Amino acid sequence: MNGYGRWTAFREAGLWIGAIPMLAPVYLVLVTTLRRPDDPAGSALAPPSGPTLGNVRRAWSEAGGDTVSFSQALFNSVLTTCAVVLLLIAIAAPAGYALARRGSRLSGLLFGLFTLALIMPIQLGMIPVYAFMAEAGLTGTRAGLILVYTGLQMPLAVFLYTGFFRGMPTAYEEAARVDGARPLRVFAQIMFPLVRPATGVVATLTGLFVWNDFFVALVFTDGTDKVTLPVAVYSFVGRFTADWPLIFAAALIAAGPVVALFALAQRSVMKGFTSTLHG
Predict the structure, then answer these.
(1) Which domain does 268 fall in, by range?
(2) Are 217 and 79 spatial neighbours (Cβ–Cβ below 8 Å)?
């Protein structure tokens, strides 16, 4: 309304200065990815003398080594991430609704346990989980990896859904019950559609964790053709050397689907975060 003034310019300059620490790694990845092998050694931040996409092509064809191709690792990551997100929504949404609407001591205790699980390090329970999965014959399989990720992310999903349902008025449910709707129908047709922003937040946070996770995928699928993208990228790291141009090129390819998805759905994602924080 008042035009572009000094205060607006000052705020924009502050935003650009604050963005430098976040943009610098992106610039480093792009510069290293486009650098030729025969480029003269110099500053890592210097732009390449002759940009090339050869590192991207090599990363696509060589990542994963002899065990799995990059395309197979990409398929494993997509399948695992989608399956985990769908399972989390299907289980955590009704669980969060039940915890939010039941005021019993048991509900409070269960919610406290889910909250406690949020601060527990993943590595703490990895040995017993691996022993159990090995006994069940699920190590080195997609089903086993999906189950482990679902269990690890369930506390976060239940915590978010419970908090969102607690902030919603009960008038919608009471009106539906007056009309004769059963509890399952009330949840499926009335309450669950109302928590669409929370579902977006759960899908975003858990999906990013599963897509980017290296440790769990390495423990449960290393040496098989079920490895995900982070483990496939790790194939460029040797015992004494690391091929950084190929590592950065593979990381750039791996980040591509996530960046594209966020670019298409950024309004919905940001709306979900805002609604959850103020809900």
Answers:
(1) 53-278
(2) no
User: Quick check: is 94 in a domain?
Assistant: yes
Q: From CA 248, how far away is CA 33, in angstroms rounded? A: 6
Q: Please name the amino acid found at residue 110.
A: L
- CA dist 39 and 160 (Å) reads 49
The domain tally of the chain equals: 1
CA–CA separation, 185 and 191 (whole Å) = 9
Question: 56 — alpha (psi -120 to 50), left (phi > 0) or beta?
Answer: alpha
Residue 71 lies in a domain: yes
Is residue 5 a part of any domain in this protein? no
Q: What is the pLDDT of residues 20-34, one digit of tens each?
A: 888 888 888 888 888
Condensed to tens digits (0 to 9), the pLDDT of residues 93-125 reads 999 998 988 878 888 888 888 888 888 888 888
Nearest alpha-carbon partner for 277 in 198, 220, 194: 198
Whose tokens are 């290393």? That residue is 222
Of 68, 35, 77, residue with least CA distance to 211: 77
- The C-alpha atoms of residue 31 and residue 45 are separated, in whole angstroms, by 7
Rounded Cα distance between 238 and 51, Å, is 26
Question: Which of 203, 143, 196, 136 is CA-nearest to residue 165?
Answer: 196
Residue 144: its pLDDT value, please?
A: 93
Taking residues 43-67, report their average pLDDT: 76
Give, as one character, the DSSP assignment of residue 204. H
Residue 115 lies in a domain: yes
Residues 1-7: contacts with CB within 8 Å, 24+ apart? none
Helices (H) and strands (E) in the chain, counts: 13, 0
Kindly report the CATH number assigned to the domain that includes residue 102.
Answer: 1.10.3720.10
